[in-house]
Amino acid sequence: MTVYSLLPLLALVTPFFTGALCLFTYPFDFLESFFRKIEKIVLLLGTGLTLLIILLMVPYILTDQILETPAFSLRADSLNMVGAIGTALIFFLASIYNVRAERGGRLKPSLYNFFILLFLICMLGLLFSYDLFGIFLFVELTIGVSIVLVIHAPGKLSPEAAFKYLIITAISALFVLLAVLMVFVITRNSNILAILDNSAPLLENPRLIMLIVICFVIGLGADIGLVPFHGWVPDVLPASTPIINVFFTAEPIALVLTLYKLIYPFYTTYPSQTLIWILLGIGFISVVFGALLAYPQRDFYRMFAYCSIEEFGHMILPLALFTPLGLTAGQFYIVNVSLMKAGLVACLGSVFINAGTRNMDSLGGLVGKMRTTALSYIICALSIAGVPPLSGFYAKLLIYTAIYEFMLQKNGIFTSVLTVMFLACMSIVSLVYLIRSFHAIFLGEPVGTFKDLREVPFLMYLPTIIISGLALLLGIQPDILLSIAG
Amino acid sequence: MEIAVLVSLTISVFFTALGSLSLTSKRTIIFLALQAASIGFVELMYCLINLIIGLHMEALIDFLATFIEWFTCAVVIPLIIYWGIRRTEDIFEQPIVDGKKAIVLSIALAILCLIIGELSSSAIPESLETLPFVAFMFASSCILMIYRKDPPKILAGLNMAENAFYPLLAESPLNLIPFMLALMVFVNIVGVFITIEAYREYGTTLISKWRWIEQ
Q1: Which end of chain B is more exposed for a tag (fewer CB within 10 A), N or C?
Q2: Cβ pair A107, A115 in contact under 8 A
Q3: A156 Cβ under 8 Å from any chain B Cβ
Q4: Backbone angles phi, psi at A88, to 5 degrees
Q5: How confident is the model at residue A204 (pLDDT cuts 50, 70, 90)?
Q6: Nearest to B183 among A137, A158, A190 (CB)
Q7: Chain-centre distance of CA B72, in angstroms?
Q8: Is the dihedral of CA B141, B145, B149, B150 positive or negative?
Q9: Does the pLDDT at position A113 exceed 70?
Q10: CB contact set of A365 (below 8 Å; sequence gap of 6+)
Q11: pLDDT of residue B97
Q12: A2 has which bridge partners?
């Protein structure tokens, strides 16, 4: 049942007004000096309120209601609710981490807060919007904002990484624009649901449907970081500040679910097997490429970047099946892995802030100095690798079941077993490199220069404890998320 | 397709090809401005004629929106990139083809695009008849971005690629235009900001030298 509600709009307006308030202080020096005292509290307030508004929508979704703000083509339903909760939660936890981790950069605090909150608006806008032009605007805005956040990092690495990121993603946004314009010119409609209701003009040109879908895959695939459009990922993560990297872990939630939202109507209109195999192919290549390249890395952020590429591949796989189980598994996996990645990258950020290096060869023996960080790191790593009883195990089990059932139906038992075995092998590879990184950073003999290190402040390890707790909770009780995902 | 639109698109293809073969960043920006001016000129004239004939509010809004769009693409954005060059350096880069050969090649490419556009008109829906021109300009701009090594030229290429969509974009809803333009300007400002910051860090805008300086 569809219900008129302003809650989806309010979820976008709240961070916007908080961000605008931050921006207002920018030109005035006397306000700027006052704002520096409350900057981190304001960010925490903005993200916290947004999370609260999103949680207010949950009871409606649990009773099978769809919240809609028709004037802005915004809609909160079981497809985007889990993603919205995950995104808002990551932003809130990252804001807690930000209180002690943010040490300044190229942007003034007011501008920094504004862009962080704008980034949150983009993510939620992508999730809630059902208008093609709206989605394009949010994609383009996401690119602009994330590039500004990359360039915020002081040092020589960030300008090059930011420029590479700008060019790859800006070209990809043009592919999204091309696809959106083609759909609009043919159907004279930009609302995804209306297009789904009246798809006759599209059916006249099946080849054009494929072209549109390919444009969406290239466009959003490059923004997500799927192979072969991943070029920016290994450069951007080491170049950004540790805190920005935590915020970035929420980005794939919105982008992957948006890609599904954009492709699904065209698949329903013209159910092409080629489309499924293209998406599955991209997913499998990303998994293999990411896992194999993460293994030899010595810079832990580059290892994490390739680990992310592997996970992007895993995220695409269940959604590419276009089955109900695939959708549920995909939603659960995307949110779970993004949360775990947030925990992992926050721990790595703490190590980087404390030790001042990303090179795993020059680290070691930190477990005695940073017990809580080490514990959180290993829990998140094991969850990503899919070790029971953590949430990652259930997420991977759901994905394997969805893929097994699909392959069994299409290609028989041999291919289905082989595919699941192959994915399990890839999970073992990720387990190996994550355990190896834990060993290199936290175990062994303490390195001389790090003997006086201490655990990071409470507010920096609190988010990682919460995420580790969630890994355990969702592993034992996955229904908490699954009931919302429908 | 109307003859005026056809001529305008062919001229735009010519300027896009010239832009991708030009020697200096300043010249690339001039061709970017000319490409944007020519691609939106016919639409702007149609709106002006509608305004003069109709003299009603809707035509006025339509004209103003088109004019702002045209002015932003042809004047504001080239000026933003030019400002970036003033703050950094104008790199002279030898393209694959130079001098008179470049002009001849650009004319040949424009004529080729015109022929392909005419031949393919029966294969694609009428509403997408400008697609071959769009695809050609987009491809030329992407080539410009791939083989050039300094950010202002790459940014100009990015804008040329975005301008290439103008024939399709002209049919988009009117309320979208302010947001689209604001985002285009924002992305260009971000691009110029990165270029200036990179110049400050590395002392050059040549991308090929950036990584070596880091190491």
Answers
A1: C
A2: yes
A3: yes
A4: -65, -35
A5: confident
A6: A137
A7: 11
A8: positive
A9: yes
A10: A442, A443, A444, A445, A446, A447, A450
A11: 62
A12: A66
